[in-house]
Specification:
Layout: E1 3-7, E2 12-20, H1 25-92, H2 95-118, H3 123-147, H4 155-174, H5 181-206, H6 211-294, E3 300-306, H7 309-330
Parallel strand pairs: 2-3
Antiparallel strand pairs: 1-2
Helix pairs in contact: 1-2, 1-6, 2-3, 3-6, 4-5, 6-7
Length: 331
């Protein structure tokens, strides 16, 4: 709204200009509020999108990848237990070792079935592991059949194995002062492996029918261990991949939300300046016109442009002031 002053014969005449472009005030306020809400939509959408994506990745890690890796590790441990009990049985003919080995093999099968259900993408690898496990079971049962009924192994076989292992340990202890602790640990591990090899050798010598079976058992057991290790490695690789993906999403979310929030803030600030200017400025001009008339000067002209509630109010004030001016002249 603009106003000017012009002197007349009656008094000082002021001219007020009321500019109210566009539609009604109610609609302009409604449109402004709608725009403010609309510019918040990208922020909300991006927040929900990144939350869902990161939540889905975390759920996959917690519910599928990490449990599959843990189960594969348990399968490897159970296979080592089965191999240990297998060697004990072949050496000692111990029924408890036989049952423990069978229980371990059943546990491995249940674990592999659970892994297959968790990770359908690794079904082929899981099926290969199950096939290798069944082959190991068949060869182990063939060894049990070749031995016959469980009982007590000949004492001389056990004594021979123990004496050989005792000699190895004696030689290790004698060389202790010339080796570091790490070297002794590595040497002890190798001696344990040689002890297992000695058991296999003694079993083969005691029962020539087991010669090929024990070799096949060892190969099948190593194949199962290799496959379970491969399943575990794949699962942990997926965990690492999902972890890296989640971190990239978090970085992208931080960058995107920062940019969109900045744009939203700028638009909000712009609207906060534009809307009051369009709404308040005509009202301030009308207030000045009313104050001018209240001071006793009814020589006021209005230049009204636009439409809506403000324009209607300006027309009403103009008519009121014109009526007061005529009434003053008559009196």
């Amino acid at each position: 709204m603009k106003f000017g002053i012009r002197r007349t014969g009656v008094g000082i005449r002021k001219r007020f200009q009321v500019l109210a472009p566009g539609s009604s005030l109610r609609r302009r306020v409604g449109y402004s509020l709608a725009i403010v809400r609309l510019i918040l939509v990208p922020v909300i959408f991006l927040s929900v999108y990144y939350l869902l994506e990161i939540g889905w990745i975390v759920d996959r890690i917690v519910s599928f990848d990490a449990p599959a890796a843990t189960l594969a590790q348990q399968a490897s441990i159970q296979m080592l237990e089965a191999r240990h009990n297998e060697r004990n049985y072949l050496l000692l003919y111990d029924p408890a070792s036989l049952q423990a080995s069978r229980d371990s093999l059943q546990n491995i099968e249940r674990i592999l079935t659970a892994i297959r259900d968790l990770q359908p993408t690794d079904e082929l690898l899981t099926q290969q592991t199950l096939a290798a496990l069944h082959q190991y079971e068949q060869r182990f049962e063939a060894a049990v059949t070749a031995i016959g009924q469980p009982g007590q192994a000949p004492a001389d076989r056990i004594d021979a194995v123990l004496m050989t292992y005792e000699k190895d340990l004696d030689s290790l202890l004698k060389s202790e002062r010339y080796k570091t602790r790490a070297q002794l640990v590595d040497e002890l591990r190798s001696r344990v492996g040689s002890f297992d090899a000695q058991i296999t050798k003694t079993v083969q010598e005691g029962n020539p029918a087991l010669r090929h079976i024990t070799i096949d058992l060892q190969n099948s057991g190593q194949e199962v261990l290799g496959l379970t290790g491969k399943i575990e490695a794949r699962s942990w690789d997926r965990v690492e991949h999902d972890h890296r993906k989640a971190r990239r999403l978090i970085s992208a979310a931080e960058w995107s939300l920062t940019v969109v929030s900045a744009i939203t803030l700028l638009v909000s600030v712009w609207i906060s300046f534009i809307l009051p200017k369009q709404v308040v400025k005509p009202l301030v001009s009308l207030k000045e016109a009313v104050d001018h008339a209240a001071a006793g000067n009814y020589e006021i002209e209005f230049d009204i442009q636009g439409q809506g509630e403000v324009v209607e109010l300006a027309n009403s004030i103009r008519l009121l002031i014109a009526h007061l001016r005529e009434a003053t002249r008559i009196s």
